[in-house]
Design a protein that fits this description.
Blueprint: E1 2-3, E2 6-15, E3 22-25, E4 30-33, E5 35-40, H1 57-71, E6 83-92, H2 97-112, E7 121-129, E8 136-140, H3 144-149, E9 152-158, E10 163-170, H4 177-201, E11 215-220, H5 226-230, H6 235-244, E12 246-250, E13 255-260, H7 263-277, E14 285-294, E15 297-303, E16 306-311, E17 332-340, E18 346-350, E19 362-371, E20 374-380, E21 383-388, H8 398-401, E22 407-415, E23 421-425, H9 434-440
Parallel strand pairs: 5-6, 16-18, 21-23
Antiparallel strand pairs: 1-2, 2-6, 3-4, 7-8, 7-9, 9-10, 11-13, 12-13, 14-15, 14-17, 15-16, 17-18, 19-20, 19-22, 20-21, 22-23
Length: 458
């Protein structure tokens, strides 16, 4: 940013974790600072040669003034969780370099993609007064000479809507309210003129961050779940950072920041964190690893740091004499959560692989419901099909053929797209029950897969 013979080179650097924030450790204040503006004034800015070292009291004060001027338009930590550092390097100076720093800092942040609420500009006002006559002249955008010999240095920074910061130095005994009002009015006119030029170059913040900025994602978790991410001795979080190539920062309130060089790496880490911290609920299915075997069952690791018990009675459908007959240490099994308690203990069962059903399969199922038009039979856990009364192999009503809970041998005739199964009753050959005898006198309508014999007539 150049204004007359004053020039400031503003740079904006974005950090992501608490380690990038400035530590404040003062007598009356401590904590972390997420926005900082550092001001450097090298001797060559005024054509001099001199020592360059730590910042002077003047440089610190100018930086604080510029920082306070921009603080009011910054987005909140929730809106923009990055750490922001602005550095103003004064290249040349013959006027207010602190107000030039406000302008360059505002432009630098907007160019970096920081969503400032409004651009900010600043200007220094001066005063030449005759105390004997009471006459005075207010100067706008004073030079170094006018600052040195004048009676006032009044720095005003703000947006189009109002003032964000000001600093007043006077050499007279005081100034009147009318003079202050006039100085503020002139400062506003000058500030708006500067903002017009700034907005010509950059009317609003960039829609996206600079490609050189780190990728950052913020996740808010239950603070009680922090241990699940860290793991014993930090084992889980270290492995997660190594596997994804990210840096993970966890605050005590459950705020987790994930930082990486690419959006894909950050998304991968976020997915892993969400899986680690998700509440285990009944019905959830996990691909778990057997980590311990006891006489009464097997303990499986649902995810790092979260174990569950699979009781011996839930290892298989049938009777299990020894746990080792079904699983071994280190085996991976698919389990389903069947119970959780207030203490966080979880019980699971092994999910048995269900055979895939297809047309033509003959299955012994259980009658689950009887209606006027047929019988519903469960052919697999949770899977039911309809045996229409025309396919029961008898002229009797469905209620006379079977009752709820009976076993029935059926054949799959059709599987519809909606997942509905059409079945027919299979009567074993040589059956002597009443239904079988009735079926000998009754021929059902042929179905899509029924076999029959006939005579070729032409």
């Amino acid at each position: 940013f150049t204004r007359g013979e004053t020039q400031s080179l503003g740079t904006c650097t974005l950090g992501a974790t608490r380690r990038d924030a400035q530590i404040v450790d003062l007598m009356m204040e401590d904590g972390l600072k997420r926005f900082m503006l550092h001001y450097n004034f090298p001797p060559f800015a005024t054509g001099e040669a001199g020592r360059m070292g730590s910042p002077s009291r003047r440089a610190i004060g100018h930086g604080r003034l510029a920082e306070g001027s921009l603080l009011a338009v910054l987005p909140s930590d929730e809106e923009f969780p990055y750490i922001i550092r602005v550095v103003s390097e004064i290249i040349e100076s013959n006027g207010s370099s602190s107000m030039a720093s406000v302008c360059s800092g505002s432009l630098a942040m907007m160019d970096a993609g920081v969503p400032l609420r409004r651009p900010v500009a600043g200007v220094a006002m001066g005063l030449v007064a005759d105390e004997t006559t009471g006459q005075y002249v207010i100067l706008t955008d004073i030079l170094g000479l006018e600052d040195h010999y004048g009676d006032m240095d009044f720095k005003v920074a703000g947006t189009r809507d109002g003032v964000t910061a000001f600093q007043l130095d006077v050499k007279t005994g005081g100034i009147s309210p009318d003079l202050m009002r006039q100085a503020m009015t002139q400062a506003r006119t000058a500030r708006l003129a500067i903002l017009d030029q700034m907005e010509t170059a950059l009317p609003k913040p960039r829609p996206s961050l600079s490609p050189y900025a780190p990728c950052l994602d913020v996740i808010r978790i239950n603070p009680e779940k922090i241990g699940a991410i860290i793991g014993p001795g930090g084992r889980v979080i270290r492995k997660l950072q190594e596997d994804t190539g990210t840096e993970i920062d966890i605050a005590d309130d459950g705020t987790v920041k994930v930082v990486g060089d690419s959006a894909d790496a950050v998304a991968l880490a976020r997915q892993a964190i969400e899986e680690l911290t998700a509440e285990v609920e009944v019905g959830m299915v996990f691909n778990a690893k057997v980590v311990r075997i006891a006489p009464f069952g097997a303990f499986v690791e649902l995810r790092p740091g979260a174990d569950a018990l699979v009781h011996i009675s839930n290892l298989a459908d049938g009777y299990v004499k020894k746990v080792e007959d079904v699983v071994q240490l280190g085996d991976e099994v698919t389990v389903e959560v069947i119970e959780t308690d207030e203490s966080g203990r979880v019980r699971c069962k092994v999910v048995q692989e269900k055979p895939k059903l297809k047309v033509g399969d003959i299955i012994s199922g259980q009658v689950t419901n009887i209606v006027d038009y047929g019988v519903f039979v469960e052919i697999s856990p949770g899977v039911r099909g309809l045996v229409h009364k025309s396919r029961l192999g008898t002229q009797s009503e469905p209620s006379a053929v079977a009752k709820k809970g009976d076993r029935m041998l059926v054949e799959i005739l059709e599987i519809e797209e909606q997942g509905r199964y059409k079945l027919r009753r299979v009567v074993p050959a040589g059956s002597s029950d009443e239904d079988s005898r009735a079926s000998q006198d009754y021929t059902p309508r042929p179905g899509p897969t029924d076999l029959g014999s006939g005579t070729v007539r032409a």
